[in-house]
Every structure is written in C-alpha cells, then in structure tokens.
Amino acid sequence: MALLGLIGALALVLPMAQVLRFQVEALVEDRDERARLDPLAEAVAVQRGLIGHDDVSTRMLRGRATLEGERRLRKAAVDERLVALQITLRAGAWLPAQREAQALQADWQLLAGDIEGRRIDVDSSQRGHRLLQEQAVQVMDLVQALLSVPLGRADAPDLQARVDSRRDELDARIGRAESTLALLALMAAALLAGAGLALRAGLRGAAAAQALQRAADDTRRGPGRRFGDRPSRATPTELTAASLDTVRRSAEDERSRSRS
Questions:
Q1: Which H or E element spans position 50?
Q2: How far is Cα 50 from Cα 206, in angstroms, rounded to an integer?
Q3: Quick one: DSSP state of residue 117?
Q4: Residues 104-147: pLDDT tens digits?
Q5: Does residue 163 contact residue 153 with C-beta atoms inside 8 Å?
Q6: CA pair distance 147, 168, nearest whole angstrom
Q7: Most CB atoms closer than 10 Å: which of 34, 108, 119, 176?
C-alpha cells in the first residue's frame, strides 16, 4: 500500500513538474521582454528631450538670450536620459543598440557645446537636432526588433503610451506567473512529503507484521525445543551411566544364553 501511495503521488507530481517547467519558461520570456522595454522607454525620453531642447535653442539663437537657463535645464535632462539609456542597454548586452546610443551621445555633446558657445546658427542647430532624433529612432528600432510584440513605428507620437501599456501588461502577467509558480511548488512539496510519510509508515507496519508473524510461529511450536535449536551436549556423568547400563545389559544377555 505504501508503494502504491508513492506511485500515486509521483503520478501527480510528474505532470505538475511539466506545468512548472512551462510556467518558468514563459516567465523568463516575459521578464526578458520587460527588460527590453526599459531602453525603449529611455530612448523615447531622449527623443522627447531633444525636441524640447531644439525648441528652446532655436528661440535662444534667434535673440532670446534669457532662455539660456531653460536651455541648460533641457540639456541636463537630455544628459540624464542618455546616461540612463546606456545603463539599460549595457544591462541587456544589446551591442548594436548600445553602439548607436554611444554615437548619439557623442554627437549630442558636440551639438550642445556648439550651441552653448554660440558657434552655430539656427538652421544648423535644427538640422543637428533632427539627426540626433533620427539616431534615437534607430536605437528604438534596434531594441524593438528583439520584442515578441513590436509596438509600431518608433517615431509615432503615441509610442510612449504604448510602451507604458505594454509594461503594465507584462508586470501584471509576471506577477500572476510568480504567484502560480509559488503555489505549484508548495503543492508538489506537500505531495512528496506526504508520499514520504506514507512510505515510512508502510515500511514500519510491514516490519511490525513480520515480527508478529514470527511470534505466532514460535507459539505454535510450543515451549519445547524450537526448530533450528541445537541439541544440548551430554554431561560426563550421563555418559558413564550410559556405559554401565550397556555393560549390564550385555552380561544379562550372556547368562541367558548359557542357561539355554
């Protein structure tokens, strides 16, 4: 019975192990895709920052010198987003997108320096900003190529909203998968533990039954010598008495023959 209980538990655990494996594989895929959305979101933020910096720089270069403070704030925001973009790309080891982002960062530093030093005119500034925005779009395209569900054109105005929606969807799915995996793991552990207890109890019961059977066999053979016991050895006194008895019987037999 204990063996049957163990077999039954294994019959339940093995299919559960398959479900666990599939759940883990799906969870890994969702986590990977969720990680790819971070650089995509950062690239979108860089693109938006460049648009804002372009607008302020254009007005400043046209004579609005008081906008220099705002321009510097916009520049600092772009710098921050570019650093965040590099960090997320290095975390995922996406080399093509990482190289494109490094080129974008270097070109940005040159353009921002020219604007700050007033070494560039409005047309050149706007052209430079457009080129940088195209580089940001290229980074997005390289990252999107790795997504299982592409989010559409990288230059679409609602891309950030679609990225946020997809991230929320994946976060919810990852949370459900983690809860399911934890529950399945507990169920499998409980089944195996129960099967182990049943097996140990069954083995103890079998040992007890064997002991009772041996006791019953001994009782049926009675209080005398048990089967398998060795006969006891005769003492010297018993051997001498037996010898004398043999001699006496021989003498009596001899007298009987003489009389006849």
A1: helix 2-61
A2: 80
A3: T
A4: 999 999 999 999 999 999 999 999 999 999 999 999 888 888 77
A5: no
A6: 15
A7: 108
